[in-house]
Amino acid sequence: MKSIGFIGLGVMGEPMAANLLRKGYPVTVFNRSAGKDEQLLKQGADAAASPAAAARTADIVITMVSNDSAVEEIYYGAGGIIEALRPGTTVIDSSTVSPDLSKRIAASVNEKFSDFIDAPVTGSKPAAIDGSLLFMAGGDEHVVDAHRELLLTMGRDVVYVGANGSGATAKLAHNTIVGINAAGLIEGMAIAAKSGLDANAFLRIVQSGGAASKQADLKGRKIIDRDYGVQFSLGLMLKDLRLSSVLTDGIGVSTPMLEAAKSLFQIGQAAGLGESDVAALAQVYESWIGKQIGEPPAPPVAAKSDETTGADRRKKTRLPLSVPIMMSIYQWQEAGGFSGQSVEGTLLDLSEDGIQVGSPFPLEQDMFVVIHFQKESELPPMTAKVIRIERKNGQFQYGCLLAGLPLFQRLQLKQYIEGHVE
């Protein structure tokens, strides 16, 4: 039986290596963080001091690490795999990385008269534990077929997708769908929760209807129970969406849904949820709707308390604001150039898609202005289009549509405004 060098013993790698041991393969393991190999050593694995040591005596090297930089380190760093490869070794990388990196590693492995398969997986921690992963394999088809039995020790299927780099591409396309589905599930559950529906009943509807999905099955219960134990982390999902964004830019595919999902996971990462499960993105929505998604529906009440926060009070009564701003005004000249000036103004109100500002300076319909907030706000300049003009109390009031404002900046603006409501 062929000997295995297994490198990367995280959430996925440790149970994958354990399945190889259970099937009788001799396995030597290495992990960059100490202590991750203890259970495997008890099951009969040998320990290596470096990736090179794990690869040097192995017939097959399998790697499963977190990102491009980690893969670069274990293959090309000091004590890396490439320097230790013997001719005839097969290297299988099951990490989710960029297709370009997979192709580069394949070229390096081939130079050592060895074979390379990029074989990322679909299926999170539970599938890794029970050996039901699906491998999407890129490389020489004959090499993939020769290692199919080995891969099925850790999974239920192996799908050949093409030359080296194709497995990595398939994984990024797949995880684009996963990220969008997860965000859509959480958004729908937030809508239901905010509307007073019972989350358990709504999840049954989702799983029984056209919205049914693997994400609903895997994450729905975790969202309701606020169970953020990692099956697949939010930070890794964001990493995959970023890689997919780079890939799609390179091949010229417009991906508005990918970009929207990426923005949501960036907000989750910024909120400190990167090490939690993808389901933790629900906490971002819970902060927006002001309640937990799995919270039992509140019984109807006859009257509402007057004790509300400043932000809630403003939403109910539309209290006016008076936040100082500066506006850059640009006007085209007949010669084809433009002139500009800065004028003082006041931020008066915030709506879902725009703001209302006041200024004694006369502007015209459809004119674009650049709004500059006070330095302490840490807000970037925002471009707005004048869509409505009124005159009140001796000054002009302009309804402005915010142009091309990313979601995270809209949230920053909302938080800044709410901080000025007493």
UniProtKB/TrEMBL annotation:
Name assigned to this protein: NAD(P)-binding domain-containing protein
Family (UniProt): Belongs to the HIBADH-related family.
Domain 3-hydroxyisobutyrate dehydrogenase-like NAD-binding: 165-285
PROSITE patterns on file: 3_HYDROXYISOBUT_DH
Ranges of residues in domain PilZ: 313-418
UniProt domain 6-phosphogluconate dehydrogenase NADP-binding: residue ranges: 3-162
Region called Disordered, residue ranges: 296-315
Stored SUPFAM superfamilies: 6-phosphogluconate dehydrogenase C-terminal domain-like (SSF48179), NAD(P)-binding Rossmann-fold domains (SSF51735), PilZ domain-like (SSF141371)
